[in-house]
Design brief:
Number of strands: 12
Strand order of the largest sheet: 1-2-3-4-5-12-6-11
Structural class: alpha+beta
Shape: globular
Low-confidence stretches: none
Helix content: 25-40%
Strand content: 25-35%
Largest sheet: 8 strands, mixed
Mean pLDDT: 92
Length: about 290
């Protein structure tokens, strides 16, 4: 039996740093996974209740495959393997008893070369017809900019405005304009956003005369930029670029490269990030699976 087919076991926290460094391979191809583990380690070290649990075949960080699960609020799963172990991924998912198939599952950051393999594995698990077969939610392009490049950004805040971090009082507005919020249960989205605002960096552009929030960007628990938004009446004024530059410069000062996801065909976002020097890397997708009855 190949090493990657050993039973999935929890990866000890003391190995997470070495696990993180496996994504230095072919840099920056896997930078998005690297930043995700950076954030997960950061939360653990600060005694923040991070729900991510990482499982590797045999509990070893260096076998080139893993399943990660977060079950608080939205049940999220990340599955991954490097190309040379791709043929084993389908079997690994089928045997992954760490995945609770009774949940509404969101498979996150699915590397495009692994999409078909994941779909097939789910279809094989569904032999008894107890799952709604996987639905492709959306495809994204991963963008990257190095920390050295981000450090060169110059911040020019317009007169009458100021920058500061968001707090929980701003979550209601952020959630209301977030395209991927949980429309059936907005409370779940709100709690998720509150955790990001409390524990991760964020930047908002505010008007001085009334302290109203005009534009903002957050850092996902994936370690990537997210939720970039400007209120409707202030779009097209370059405010999005200001908050992006402010946040990524903070991250760069802490030694972090910048990663983000842009939903495919979001022309405005693609244009914005390319205009400030981001380059596109790999495509990823989000896939949903729902149970029928158990």
């Amino acid at each position: 039996m190949r090493e990657t087919l050993q039973p999935l076991k929890p990866l000890p926290f003391e190995d997470w740093t070495m696990f993180r460094d496996t994504f230095r391979r072919d840099w920056p191809t896997y930078a998005c996974y690297y930043n995700w583990v950076v954030n997960a380690i950061n939360w653990r070290e600060r005694n923040i209740e991070s729900d991510w649990k990482i499982y590797c075949p045999g509990g070893k960080y260096n076998v080139g495959a893993f399943v990660a699960v977060a079950s608080e609020g939205l049940y999220r799963v990340i599955v991954f393997t490097f190309e040379e172990f791709k043929e084993d991924l389908q079997e690994m998912i089928k045997k992954a008893d760490v995945i609770d198939w009774k949940q509404n599952i969101s498979f996150c950051i699915v590397h495009q070369p692994l999409k078909t393999t994941l779909m097939r594995a789910i279809e094989e698990i569904d032999v008894m017809g107890k799952l709604i077969l996987p639905r492709l939610d959306y495809t994204v392009t991963n963008y990257f900019k190095s920390r050295d490049e981000c450090l060169t950004f110059e911040l020019q805040v317009p007169d009458g405005f100021y920058l500061k971090s968001l707090n929980v009082s701003h979550v209601l507005l952020v959630n209301s304009l977030w395209p991927h919020r949980n429309k059936k249960n907005p409370e779940l989205s709100r709690k998720f956003l509150e955790s990001l605002v409390k524990y991760n960096k964020s930047v908002g552009l505010f008007k001085k005369d009334d302290d109203s929030l005009i534009s903002w960007i957050l850092l996902y628990d994936f370690g990537s930029l997210g939720m970039l938004q400007t209120v409707e009446e202030h779009k097209g004024k370059g405010y999005g670029k200001i908050v992006v530059k402010a946040l990524v410069k903070q991250l760069a000062q802490e030694g972090l490269d910048s990663t983000l996801y842009v939903v495919k065909n979001n022309v405005a976002a693609e244009k914005l990030f390319r205009s400030i020097g981001y380059r596109s890397l790999e495509e990823y997708c989000w896939i949903s699976v729902q149970p029928l009855s158990f």
